[in-house]
Amino acid sequence: MGAVLLSPLSFSFVPAMLLIWYLIEWRWHYSAFTAILTQLFTFFAIGVLYSSVVGTWAGLAVSLPVLPILDKELQNNSKIVTFKESKQGRGFTHISLAILTLVLSIFAVAAFAGSTVLIASNTAVTLYLAFIIVYSWRHFPAVPVKYKQTFLRSVAGKSERLQICFESASSSGGSLRLRSPFEWARVSPLPMFFRDHKWIINISLTSQLSGPALVPFEGSAVDRWGMIKCRFTIQPLSLLVIPRAKYADWLARQYLAGTGTGTISAISNLRGVKSLFGMRSGVEYYGSQTYQAGDSLKNIDWKHSVKFNELISKEFVEPHGRPAILLANVVARDANEADKLASDFMIAAISLAHEGIPTSLAAYDEKNVLLTTRPLKDTQLVVQVMQLIRLIRITGNPQRYLNPPDMRRLRSNLTRLRKISKGPSAVLAEILGIEYDGLCNNAKFHVCSLALAETKSKTNERCTVVSISGRNHDAEALEFNSYILEKSGEPIVEINRTS
Fold it and tell me: What is residue 498's predicted lDDT score, i.e. its pLDDT?
């Protein structure tokens, strides 16, 4: 109001417009950069408007209280600034370059207009900006954090969570973002604000066999005013990844070292194998657990579901044990998949042996049946699987396989469409029939089916088939055999199916 009354009549509308803009900015707050420009304009406008009444230096003195407000807006901007890719090291942020360019432009305008107060006001802003830039450059190092390297030992494929303590190496403070170049590692919280204190970052990762020993994190930071930026790489985490195959081999040797002659009757206790394999078929009630994808809707326990406010599924088991067939595809796409297959083979074998379930082995690659056995027990099974792991080989083939069609759905659609003798439905039924016949013919002569048939010929009982595969060349054959075995009352269970 004072600026409206004291400024020349021709400029009295400027304070009124500035007040309106302040209200708009306060209500909607477009961006931090807009707020900074508003404070700069206010600083210059107050000096120019009051100078005609109170003089140049007094007008400058009246506008100086705006500088602390400008300082606060710069600090607010540094907390929300977006980090863009840049080269390693320190440099000026985009907003600092924009402000410096604006200040130099105002010098040119003031000199052209011959405005002493504008030159004086711009000089004050320049000195303020020069001070914070020099201060930040001296107190904001290229790597503004300090840490002690943390060592982590983990089994490949295991998810880990850990915390690392960071300490500020900058006395000016600022904001920091860390990110991992790998999808299997995550850092939180983001962003982080620091100034002469310590803080904790949370790292969640899934150990990868092919991952680096020193896990790098790319850091981007700006100083407290958002004028200086830096980009750097740190390695706060040293990772020792134990291959799953090595861990599984250790488990097998521990099992063999502690195994006697064996007194466990054939599957007298299903507790261990049920939790691993998800064997939910049968007529004898076993217990209840949280509903999982694939559970029959007929087995939902509605009373307990309402009580616990989540779906609860009943589980049933066979009243007597049945032997198993461990169907193993030894072809892997890469080292990580080969390591996972070896671990799955051994964990499954130890679980079956521990429960005393007679288990036959059927191993194959993309061309040949490599191994079929009669039902084995306890140590025989574990020893045989230790030898089987040596047959795993990496093809190095980058070829990717599509998911096979759902045989149950395909057969159901085909049955419904064949009831219509003419029209588009009949044509579609013919097409689906060709697809179904092709899948059947390919699956019947696939090496997976041959290995399964050869093993079943050595077993005189119905079996539960436990399949471990990378789902590559045998995807369609496994889908077909799953459909056929389920119809005959011999379920096929896939352990840790990989894509």
Answer: 46
